[in-house]
Design goal:
The chain is an all-beta fold and 225 residues long. Helix content is 2%, strand content 52%. The protein is built from one helix and 13 strands, in the order E-E-E-E-E-E-E-E-H-E-E-E-E-E. A hairpin with a 3-residue loop joins strand 3 (62-69) and strand 4 (73-81).
Length: 225
Amino acid sequence: MRNTVMAVVSVSILVLGLAAREGWSTPNTLVAFPGADIYGTGKVHLDVDTYSTRGVTMDFPTYFGLEFGLGKAEVGFDVLGGQNAGDKPVLLNGKVLLTEDQKQGFRVVAGAFNVGQSSQPLAFNVVYVTAAKSTPVGRFHLGVMHGSKTKLVKDETALHAAFDRPLTKKWSFAVDACTGKSAIGSVNPGVYYYLTPNSDILVGWNRYNDRTLSDTLYAAYDLTW
């Protein structure tokens, strides 16, 4: 799901809160982690997310995700495919709006992603609360995440920060990060290109805080209708 989900993943959604982006399709994450926006009532979002390192497929499977907008909430799931998908290849995600001030460009959401059965290695079962504030230079996000200590091993509670902004009508930039040296602790810049008002391609880079983990090249396709 681009992310639907990644690292603590399975995810939520991004709609940049700036007029230049209004009406354009957005992914359910910023780069690796959920953003603060929610798909509108009746909206359906499809995404495909892939990861690789040095041109070789990583241990991550490919994510095939669907999200459904409910207005002030959204729900979705990811089906994992390819290598290391495991025998329980479905991960769930969801998000709900807690509060917002449209005039101030401020909102707070809570959600969960990469929720799955214990036998699934990527079922990090992450819950989070994230706030976002729009400014003239872009939008800033700050929140906290907590996942399964069994899966994340250490630093299962972490801070999450992000920034996103449109560059042109066709291009936008985002970067998000999570503290700690667990499987989700990372810094992740990415660039979006909008093919149509309803679809985009994201190319990003995942640099893990634990330098024993290989950095990954991340690519995703998103379609909203």
